[in-house]
Amino acid sequence: MGQTTTSLSSNKENSEGQQQTSASTENDFQFLIGRLENLPDSARKLFNLGKQYLTTGSKNRDSGGNDFSSLFQPYLPLHTDGDISTEDINSTLRETGTGMLDTPLRKSAPLHHFQTYIQWKAAQDLNNFYSLCLPKRHTIYLQPINTFPEFVHSYRLKNQSLELNLFETVQAFLQVFFCGLEVLLLPPVMLDNTKQEVRSRVHPVMESQQLCINDLYPFLQRLLPPNGLCIMGISWTDIYPEGHNFVLGEASVQHQAAAISFGRFEFSRFDAATHRDVVEINGAILWKLLKSSSHELCHLLGLQHCTFFQCAMNESSSVPEAMEQPLFLCPVCLRKLQRACGFDVLERYVLLRKFLTGVADQVSDEAKVQECLVWLDQCISYLNS
Ligand SMILES: [Zn+2]
Ligand SMILES: [Zn+2]
């Protein structure tokens, strides 16, 4: 296969002056986020903020004098050792040479090696073309699998006038995160061990039961109602992909199915003497459910891992790393989700703030929820300014 010549760095090398540079920058931006003319002012404002970051780097953010530098940060994997200063990040970015987009894209690979909005949209348009004859599907289904401990059943989130059980809490959050689509909860389903539809094993070290996610995909796909866009299983029992130890959640676009589990006690190094199972639903467990469910469902809407900003769609190599990542999407990923769901960006942030304010009252042990609210306040005030 021949070397492609469409990289952004070659655009830069061929530049014939400032005018062409600006035109290239505009094209690069459209490739990343698409055209914005038909969007409301607030959405354009947010996506243009992404443009400012992507095209001028960290030096020139927000010409209006406001500092919104904390809204979006360039992507750096969190498993890097030690604290990293902004200067370190910038010098790394300069050294890696990323062409026109010199701040967030720290890798030297061309832009089209990562999933831009235009690439995502092309894949979605193709999918939509093949499903033209099928009924319109707007519903995400949540499917609890097997049994759960009593404290899971008895959990209640008192949110304003509502009282929600654990699965209803996840449903209510996803209804806001994916607003524009419908999110419905199916009654729990029990796996029939005699049919051996889903392989299970006992983990050799932890000695706990695990379900094979590769078998869960077709199992869940068969449960997807005809109007279902996709389905996500929620399991207390550990899940594992073939040939691997454990996974917090995973999605199969081919099956339009995903699964997450939340019963595993998190440990940095397993010690049989001190190991115990999760014994209560606290803020950390709730956070894990919100994080993993929204991430996996975004995969089912065609979003791949994000390498542009710190983002809910960053890849993670461990559960603690996944839990550290943002709950919210960067401008590039948000543009994809906005197109998939058809929501108003500002309205969705307001709804997210309302939901998380209700959660924050209940999970004072979870600082990440408070951080989300600070971020939402800052973002909403920026979009309203
Ligand atoms: Zn992922
Ligand atoms: Zn992203």
TrEMBL record:
GO molecular function terms noted in the UniProt entry: metal ion binding; metallopeptidase activity
InterPro entries per record: MetalloPept_cat_dom_sf, Pept_M54_archaemetzincn
Cofactor section: Zn(2+)
Presence of the UniProt keyword Protease in the record: yes
UniProt xrefs under Pfam families: Peptidase_M54 (PF07998)
An annotated GO BP: proteolysis
UniProt keyword list: Hydrolase, Metal-binding, Metalloprotease, Protease, Zinc
Classification via SUPFAM superfamilies: Metalloproteases ('zincins'), catalytic domain
Keyword Disulfide bond: no
Chain intervals for the UniProt region annotation (Disordered): 1-25
Name this polypeptide is given: Archaemetzincin-2
Organismal lineage: Eukaryota, Metazoa, Spiralia, Lophotrochozoa, Mollusca
